[in-house]
Give the backbone structure.
Amino acid sequence: DAGVTQSPTHLIKTRGQHVTLRCSPISGHKSVSWYQQVLGQGPQFIFQYYEKEERGRGNFPDRFSARQFPNYSSELNVNALLLGDSALYLCASSLYSGGAHEQYFGPGTRLTVT
Amino acid sequence: GENVEQHPSTLSVQEGDSAVIKCTYSDSASNYFPWYKQELGKRPQLIIDIRSNVGEKKDQRIAVTLNKTAKHFSLHITETQPEDSAVYFCAASISSGGYQKVTFGTGTKLQVIP
């Protein structure tokens, strides 16, 4: 049974560019959340999607956007990259959106902005 | 919004000793408290969780306690082993508007000395 998968594993981009990160949740899980983890800190909540709808958003600028597809996979897009966007981007899947549900993380995408 | 504080930031124990990590949260609406273990370069891994209607939960060498009145919760690891060495994150989750927002602590780097 596959866990949460993310692609690519690593990515190097230049300031001002755009990036798309991808996530496939655990089979049967309908909710995907995105987190940003800066080195030495805990993950910070960016978005939660459920049934293709955005259900929640953290304190991130509009340069960050996401979407969820009918198969429950998800993309995170970041426009006009800044040096401060360098981080590990984690995707987590859970069965549902609201309530208290276990979230399981993917391996992450390491983004470096130069 | 929710704020989660975690102490200590680093912890060194001898193999076989116990380790305790403490967290406090600010929003009394938080109802789910997961703990994650993150080894270097790997994904956060859910190791134990507790819901707000429970005061204590144990799973083999790991236990978590929750004091809702004081708004603090703790992770206890007994009979520590070298493979317990990792960064541990506590988190507090609020269900709001149909989504689950998880706020993480800043992490505790645990080193178990053989």
The longest strand of chain B covers residues 86-96. Chain B touches chain A through 31 residues (CB under 8 Å). The mean pLDDT of chain B is 94. The two ends of chain B are 41 Å apart (CA to CA).
